[in-house]
Amino acid sequence: MCCWPSLFLSNSRPILSCCPCPFMAALWTLSLVLSGCLFACLALNPPQLYDLPPSLGSNGSRSGLSVDRPMVLRVFSVDYHHVQAPFEIVLWIMLASLAKLGFHWSGRVPAVVPESCVLIMVGLLVGGVIYGVRHSAPPTLSADAFFLFLLPPIVLDAGYFLPGRLFFENLGTILWYALLGTLWNVLGIGLSLYGVCLLAPSSLGDISLLHCLLFGSLIAAVDPVAVLSVFQEMQVNEQLHILVFGESLLNDAVTVVLYKLFESFLRLPSVTGLDVLLGGCRVVLVGLGGLFVGLFFGLLAALTSRFASRAQVIAPLFVFLYSYLSYLTSEMLHLSGITAIVTCAVTMKQYVEANVSERSNASIQYFLKMWSSVSETLIFIFLGVSTIQDIHMWSWPFVCSTLLLCLVWRATGVLLLTAVVNKLRRNTVTFRDQFIIAYGGLRGAICFSLVFLIDDFPKKRLFITTTIVVILFTVFVQGMTIKPLVELLDVKRKKRALPTVSEEIHSRLIDHLLAGIEDVVGYWGQHYWKDKFEQFNKKYLRRFLIGEERQARSSILRVYQELKRREQRGDEEAPPAVDPRPTSRPLLPEEMESIRHILSRNLQHFNNKQTPAYSRHTLHQDVTTDRTRKPLQRHLSLGERRRYNTITHWPQGENGEFSETHRGRAGLSRSHTVCSISPRRTLSDSSASTQTQPVDPKRAEEDQVSPQQQSPAERALKKQLSFILENENQQ
Amino acid sequence: MGSSSSNLNTIPNSQELMQETGFSAAHLLRLYERFEFLDKDNKGHLRPEDFEAVQELSTNPIGDIIIGSFFSPGQETVDFPSFVRILAHFRPAEKNRTRDGAQPEPANSSTGKLKFAFQLYDRDRDGKISREELLQVLRAMLEMQVTEEQLESMAERAIQEADLDEDDAISFDEFKKSLEKVNIDHKMSIHFMK
Fold it and tell me: Is some CB atom of chain B closer than 8 A to the CB atom of A544?
């Protein structure tokens, strides 16, 4: 695994030290032992369907009925049946987690292979073992287990860590891609597959149009987690990130709704035009209904958290309970549960974070990550396990055409939609972005689970096989090659038409100018509604939903957060490895390159306020002690703007030694680069803002005053601050 | 957004303004509302402080320059017609404008837009961007991210590329030429202001 071609590795990343061998050995031994246990358990017992709550009806019949009258008092006995269900579940989860652990310890592999691949491989392994031992079907996932227990944590996690501001700024585009794009994909794939079935009537003749549409709807569900984790390495601006992320979230909702619609069509004796119309109405109702249910529960949760100050320990529980309630309620009413839970999370986030203590916030975040990680892990392992079994049905034309059609329809869909949407956006979605969106359409957990839930019909096994193949293909092939391909594309693009320096400079100026003018005019499209909402929020919602004593504090804190946010915006990662040699007249190509780099990144950072990429598997390590000292350090940091999340990687002492020289900053950049290679560096906007909670007002003011002695840039900062404070006072 | 009168008649010279800038009545009204919103003390004109109250503008690297561009040299206030005239630069250009040499170039044509951008650099309005002016703007844009030497070499390079008549400054035509590959109309338009 250590000799990947260098194409897969970016040059700027220093080489991770090889994992210490004893740990690896211990880990692998442990996991082998556990797998041994697992297979032994399974070998000794016939397979059964897993429902995650430990109470299994089927188990009751076995235990306790065997009348075993011992002659002598037993000193030691093994009663496996008693604990079978939870024991096996725990073993599964343990196995998966150890695999993850091993994965992250294994040197360079995480950089190249997405985590989902590893999980699937582990699943394949375990499936192979089980198959080898028992020659029969392995445990499978039941419908309820998936929809009621495994899916909600994943979606809740995605919704909670959604960067709200960015999401709403790009909402139009996201909805455009998610709704229309998904519809395009579903219909396209469904209809083309039907065409393929018609062309091969011998083998595929009994697949009806509705079945094809059903299949199309489930195969269109995109799961971008692997792609998002690769985004860390690729230079991805926020706009692309939020597009991919938002699209996948809404796309899931649309897919599930369409899937259920087609399924209910299948159950009808015949489908008329009226049914189609009703189906359309139902889709709208389902979507909006989910939205309202989510809003309701979100506000309720916010209100409850207001009173949670005296029982901080259970405060996180409310977040989960209300979200889950919203999901269950909408499932009960046959509305879109995914929409509900996402809306609930987005609604309650800002109020809950203001109301609840720092530690509770940290627990909420960690639990969310943990549960979603576990869910996803389980699903992928089941995917691997289900691959190795007898019930596959293979059909070359069907499988290959599905693969091809998925790619083709997604690509054309993205191209067409982007052509339209670019006319309305100022920041156009470039070709590179389009490629990433199209190629990054990896399939994952949802497809897999949905296909198992289809009512049984003769070709169901074919569908299952095809889905598994598509998932494996996209996750392995596309997941691993997207980064090199994008780099290739970047290289090619650079070779073509290099803009001149003056062109770059002037373009940047114009971009800044336009952003400023939009702000002056109060761009009605976005800012108008945003301002209106903010006013409404401040006047009514915040007053109602945030506890009294926290409101005053929160306004100073918000000022502080605002200040920090602006610093972040003005912040720039120091240009990587720029050589501060004094330059003479002719510029060397590397310097040109670095200058171009600087200019492009400068705009990226300004126009798109930086949020690191979302990852289901990690939470930024910011939630640590010493939070109170950090803000102080930042402002004392001698006129340097640094990214907030780089601070945690450095010990306290380093603050002093960085002087205002640029050499120092170059050193800074290198260590920043070192710290940032691992895919673990993630941060959500929310956790950045929550860090400031414990800072009491006095210290915040101190912090704000201290930059005064610094360079003019900091003075400008102070000026902004004074007007902010003024603004706050006026309100 | 302040107590807005939904009547075009409250805006003085509205017809001439609409004629001159090409804004529709609805847009003019909205701009007037925005003007009133920015003008917190109801003075009837805007001062630099009013612009600075716009939050996002203060974090814009060239925020000060943009604010300065609203004010004619020597003037300290901006009244509504001047406000609208400046913003007229950012309307999308009409596609089928007849190239009539006699008419003055409208503000929102490519040339008009470029002229506005040029004047962001050329503060002293001498028709040329000197090295110092370029450096000033570059410094504002890139602030803390590059060294002084790099700034200078960038400015040097920019002038070298653009300066065809070797006078060590960029004239408007040279500026225009260096941006010929860029779709100015798309880049410098706020689309909803048709």
Answer: no
Contact B62 A509 (CB under 8 A): yes
Closest Cβ opposite residue B62 in set A516, A518, A580: A516
Across the interface, which of B57, B149, B182 has its CB nearest the CB of A582? B149
Domain boundaries, chain B: 14-90, 106-194
User: Which of B135, B153, B179 is the best substitution to test chain A (most A C-beta atoms within 10 A)?
Assistant: B153
Under an 8 A CB cutoff, do A506 and B179 touch? yes
Handedness of CA A418, A419, A421, A427 (dihedral sign): positive
Domains B14-90 and B106-194 share a fold: yes
| CATH H superfamily, domain B14-90 | EF-hand (1.10.238.10)
pTM, two decimals, is: 0.62
> In the CATH scheme, what is the homologous superfamily, with its name and number, of domain B106-194?
EF-hand (1.10.238.10)
Q: Does A701 touch chain B (CB under 8 A)?
A: no
The pLDDT of residue A624: 36
How many H-runs (helices) and E-runs (strands) does chain B carry? 11, 2
Contact A502 B191 (CB under 8 A): no
Mutate to test the interface with A, among B58, B64, B89 (most CBs of A within 10 A): B58
> What is the structure's pLDDT at B169?
84
- pLDDT for B5-16, tens place per residue? 456 777 778 888
Contact by Cβ (8 Å): A190, A216: yes
**Sign of torsion, CA A658 A661 A664 A665?**
positive
Averaged over successive runs of 10 residues, the pLDDT of chain A (731 residues) comes to 34 40 63 63 51 39 51 85 84 81 78 77 79 68 79 88 80 88 92 88 80 90 71 66 85 86 85 84 89 93 85 86 93 89 89 84 90 82 75 82 92 92 78 85 82 82 88 87 80 59 80 80 61 72 70 54 58 38 48 65 49 58 39 38 36 36 36 34 36 39 39 45 41 38
Chain B CB within 8 Å of residue A502 CB:
yes
pLDDT at A207: 81
For residue A50, the cross-strand partners are: A141
Question: How far A618 CA lies from chain B's nearest CA (Å)?
Answer: 30
Q: At what angle do helices A445-452 and A151-160 cross, to 10 degrees?
A: 150
User: Are A572 and B188 within 8 A, CB to CB?
Assistant: no
Nearest chain B Cα distance for residue A502, angstroms: 4
Q: Check CB contact under 8 Å for B157 and A502.
A: yes
Angle at A268 (CA atoms; ends A262, A269), nearest 5 degrees: 135
Whether the CB of A640 is below 8 Å from some CB of chain B: the reply is yes
Give the per-residue pLDDT at A31. Answer: 62
For the four alpha carbons of A508, A514, A515 and A516, in that order, the dihedral sign comes to positive
- Give me the pLDDT at residue A129, please: 78
Mean pLDDT, consecutive 10-residue stretches, chain B (194 aa), reads: 57 82 82 83 84 78 84 83 86 65 69 87 84 86 77 82 81 85 77 61
Distance CA A334, CA A101 (A): 39
Closest CA to A520 of B20, B138, B58: B58
Residue A506 identity: H
Cβ atoms within 10 A of the Cβ of A543, count? 11
Chain B contact for A574 (CB, 8 A cutoff): yes
